[in-house]
Write a structure and sequence with these properties.
single chain, 308 residues, alpha+beta, Protein Transport Mog1p, Chain A, eight-stranded antiparallel sheet, two-stranded antiparallel sheet, 10 strands, 19% helix, membrane, transmembrane, transmembrane helix
């Protein structure tokens, strides 16, 4: 084993000094001095810390803060932090040592955002208005029982005769002598009187309806009687209701001209009761037969009014 390097061996570490005497002797050129190593530099001593030297007092007392070079301790009767009068303290002149405790987090109370204030005020106004409306209107009546519909029966003092023809809703008509029932009419009851030739001279038609006004019913009847005919209509007139059970009484007269020189007189009376039943008396007669038919028609109308 020799002390020479093998061929191909990497160069020596420049930071390590050679100790092989034979290599030093064989070397023909002197090697330059190596640069100083950073690990060989002398490290300066750490300056004394006021926290390194414990106080001479009891265990757990605050650390001493006087200068390490000074050998004179503070006065025996001094109070407060020992380093409060130290001028070369690292945290400033006449300032006690800083506290290493983290300050308590500040507790913040709940605060409403500014935009919520007008919204809350608007809601309060709406609630107050709603309460006022409920108080003024008496509350919600949906849950209350609906008022019963009044039922009206014929007056106990009236007893229809045996020949009375019942219509509906307690209403009947007593036909006059010579007046016959029109069998083909199924809506209500219609009686008519005929001439020698079999042609009708006059008729009285009693018909009824519910949940309409007397005014609307009378106009509808007259429009149907005069449809596609030459007619003259009067204005709707109010009648004096003959009974307390009636709440609306109207009439409407009209004239039809079927041919030149001939005319038909018509008159419709409508009576509405408190229970919503509307009864119409539709009377029509030739102009030359009105005087003959009027007395009989008047008696038959009265029989209907008596049964209302």
């Amino acid at each position: 084993m020799n002390n020479k390097r093998d061929k191909g061996q990497p160069p020596r570490n420049p930071w390590v000094r050679k100790t092989d005497a034979e290599e030093d002797e064989e070397s023909t050129t002197p090697e330059p001095d190596l640069p100083p190593s950073p690990w060989s530099l002398e490290v300066p001593a750490r300056p004394p810390s006021p926290w390194d030297t414990p106080d001479a007092g009891t265990a757990g007392s605050a650390p001493s803060t006087w200068d390490a070079a000074s050998t004179t301790p503070p006065a025996t009767g001094s109070t407060g932090v020992q380093g409060a009068s130290q001028t070369d303290a690292p945290w400033g002149d006449k300032v006690g040592p800083p506290s290493l405790r983290r300050p308590e987090p500040v507790k913040r109370g709940f605060k409403l955002p500014p935009v919520a204030i007008p919204i809350a005020a608007g809601l309060a106004v709406v609630v107050l208005v709603a309460v006022a409306l409920v108080l003024l209107t008496g509350g919600d009546d949906k849950g209350a029982d609906p008022a019963p519909v009044p039922t009206v029966t014929p007056s106990p003092s009236y007893t229809p005769p045996a020949n009375a023809l019942p219509v509906q809703f307690g209403v009947s008509i007593v036909p006059a002598p010579g007046w016959n029932v029109v069998a083909k009419e199924t809506n209500g009851k219609q009686v008519a009187i005929y001439g020698p030739d079999g042609a009708p001279r006059a008729f009285l038609w009693v018909r009824q309806k519910q949940n309409v006004t007397a005014n609307a019913f009378v106009v509808g009847i007259v429009e149907g009687e005069t449809k596609d005919k030459i007619a003259k209509l009067d204005n709707v007139r109010n009648l004096q209701c003959p009974k307390d059970v009636l709440v609306e009484c109207v009439a409407l007269s009209y004239t039809i001209t079927p041919t030149p020189g001939a005319s038909i007189k018509g008159d419709v009376e409508v009576y509405r009761r408190k229970d919503g039943v509307v009864t119409a008396l539709d009377y029509q007669a030739g102009a030359d037969f009105v005087a003959t038919a009027d007395p009989a028609v008047k008696a038959m109308k009265q029989s209907v009014l008596d049964s209302l």
